[in-house]
Amino acid sequence: MPVQTILRYPHPLLKKICNEVDFVDEQLHTLVEDLLDTMRAGPGSVGVAAPQIGVTLRVCVVDVSASRHGKDNNHGLLTMINPEILESRGVATMREGCMSVPDYTGDVDRATEIRVRFSELDQTVREFTATGFEAVAIQHEMDHLDGILFLDRIISVKTGLFRRKNYK
């Protein structure tokens, strides 16, 4: 499947609350393949959500296994349909970036541990606890499904927003 163009802030679709997926069909399989190809093509990307490619459905993909921050603590490639966070614990400040906001990074407070439930493409329901960088990545992508960007969660615009030097 082809790599899709990432919508950039302030595109209005990035602020939309996404619709739940009611059934799995060929179009959903194509969407997931597009998300995976787009994530893999993005520099340093560990996830992408459907609204970032212009589709307002509650679907995202996350894979932190190749990242130095997540390689030792992850659940592999996650295809998440209608994900929900059941519990969260702890809080830590992390520097986040986003393909939809390529020129900036920012300090964001996130839960350090989350219990998440979602459906996979084969309609299997998965539930597990994610911690550390993987938990942060999942929260970031799930925020996209609710029309929230990391910019909306920055601790301080004065001291927590940084111009990205290189995005290659």
TrEMBL record:
Cofactor names: Fe(2+)
Enzyme Commission (EC) number: 3.5.1.88
UniProt feature coiled coil, ranges: none
Keywords for this protein: Hydrolase, Iron, Metal-binding, Protein biosynthesis
Superkingdom of origin: Bacteria
Cofactor descriptive note: Binds 1 Fe(2+) ion.
Binding site for Fe cation: C98, H140, H144
InterPro entries according to UniProt: Peptide_deformylase, Peptide_deformylase_sf
Enzyme class: hydrolase
The keyword Protein biosynthesis is annotated on this UniProt entry: yes
A Pfam family assignment: Pep_deformylase
Function: Removes the formyl group from the N-terminal Met of newly synthesized proteins. Requires at least a dipeptide for an efficient rate of reaction. N-terminal L-methionine is a prerequisite for activity but the enzyme has broad specificity at other positions.
Family of the protein in this entry: Belongs to the polypeptide deformylase family.
HAMAP family, A to Z: Pep_deformylase (MF_00163)
Protein name: Peptide deformylase
Species lineage: Bacteria, Pseudomonadati, Thermodesulfobacteriota, Desulfuromonadia, Geobacterales
Gene field: def
